[in-house]
Amino acid sequence: MKKNIAILMGGYSSEFEISIQSGNVVYNKLDRDQYIPYRIHITKDNWYYVDDNDQKHPIDKNDFSLTLDGTKIIFDAAFNTVHGTPGEDGLLQAYFDLIGIPQTACDFYQAALTFNKRDCISTLKPYGIPTATNYFLNQGDHIDSKTILDTVGLPCFVKANKAGSSYGVSKVKTEAELLPAIEIAYKEDDEIIIESFLSGTEVSVGVIQHNGKDVVLPITEIVTENEFFDYEAKYLGKSEEITPARLSEEDTKKVKDLALKVYQILKMKGFSRSEYIFHHGEPYFVEMNTNPGLSEASILPQQAHKAGINLQELFSNAIESCLTAKNRSIN
User: Fold this and answer.
1) What is the pLDDT of residues 65-91, one digit of tens each?
2) Domain 112-129+199-319 grouped into CATH 3.40.50.2300
């Protein structure tokens, strides 16, 4: 019997429209012989199903059910494509865990941890994972520009701690640019991370669970026309994404081993895409995305394609993995 799959998209952050794009790709590519997909928009005001006529039907949040023409629809699984909050920071994961519906992303603790750049880096450092030198600020803290720059140097990056798609990120080249960059970051989050500049080749590494195994996908090299891999570079064509990356066999092994180690240290599952920069010949961890973009032009689908995994297979495997995990926990 076909399974009812709720495709979660939208969210409460600046990444709303990007998430809608990802969700629609999953909706269009999902195997209709196995699944009946439902596009579920998650907004601050309402959660609702959008039918093929763009009509909205409310979701009952008590049990995440949908009633159409007097028939109550219960979902077998949720495919989580919500970038940012509440889909990537653990809130939706915890909700679905409570009501007993499996979902395709990582568990709630891993989502919350990786979404918080500062906490994720702090967790990985004791395992010897190399990262940039960093300085943390909370909104309202006294800002001592000299101490900050003595710690991280110039140039440096100022980032909103809990945001994606490079919202709230600035490259700072002079002391005069520091305070304006901090104000930009505070528009996205009340926590900031300021990091030393790492010079070198930037790569993106997808790690997924596929057929019951942790699999590192072919690596993507990021070559941007801009100062860094910002919103324009990611979504407006201001970068070149080369898969597989132009790395030596030795460097390829280094970053693949490191990405797999990070994935397993954090006890991840589902999709992940992590960014690394080769600094003085060694890969440095930058951040992890647990709900990466899933359009056909997005990095993770490009990597899966190079690995011989088409989108229908990629998405089906994600659903079957979360259903298997639920059955295993019951038994």
Assistant:
1) 999 999 999 999 999 999 999 999 999
2) no
